[in-house]
Amino acid sequence: LLIIFALIFSVQPELTSGYFKNILMREEYRKYKKGLLKKIVIISLTTPIILLIIFLISNLITQFNYHFPNDISIYAVYDKWKYNNFILYGLIVCFAQFLINIFYCCIGLYSCLKNKNSIVSTIMGYILFLLADLFIYIVVYVYIINKLLGFKNLTDYFNITGYWFFNVGSSCIYVILISFIIQLLAVLLIKKIYKNKERIIINYEDQNA
Predict the structure, then answer these.
(1) Does residue 201 carry a pLDDT above 80?
(2) In the predicted model, what is the mean pLDDT of the chain?
C-alpha cells in the first residue's frame, strides 16, 4: 500500500492540475513515459534501500559478526541456510522486493488513470492489489500450477505481499523468476494502456466532464 500510495501521490497531481495534458502538447510522449519509468524505479527502490539501511545498522551494532553458534541452533527460527548465507539471502529478498514494487507501481499507475481523486485512486489500487493477490494464488497457483500442471509445494513462492519463506539456496530461483514474471506482465500491460497519448488524454478528460 505504501508503494501504491507513493506512486499515486507522485503522478496524480500532474493529471489533476492539467499539467499532464499541457506537457504532452509541448514535449514528446516518449520523454514523458521515460519520466514515469524513472519515478517507478525510484519508488520501487524505497523498501529495498530501507532494508539495506536496517542491515547496515544491524552490522554496526553486532560489529559485522555473522557467527552462528552451534549450541543455539536448536532455537533457530529459520533454516540454517539463511543464517549461513545471510548476505546472499538479504540481497535476494531486496531484489525480489524491487521487482514486486514495480508491480505495485503499475497498479498505482492504472488507478491514477481511472480516477482523478488521489484518495479514491489509493483505495482502488489497494483493492486491485488484493484481487491480484487472490488471482495469482488461487487461479494461477492452486488451479493451474498445482492441480493442472502438478507442481506441488510452491505455495510460499506465490506470495506477492512482500516476503518469501524460502529456506534453501535453490529456492531463490523460484522467488526471482516468479517476481520477475509478475512485474514483466504488469509492465507490458501498463505499456499497452499508456501507448496512445490521445486516448490517455481523452480518457482523463471524460472523468472531468
Answers:
(1) no
(2) 81
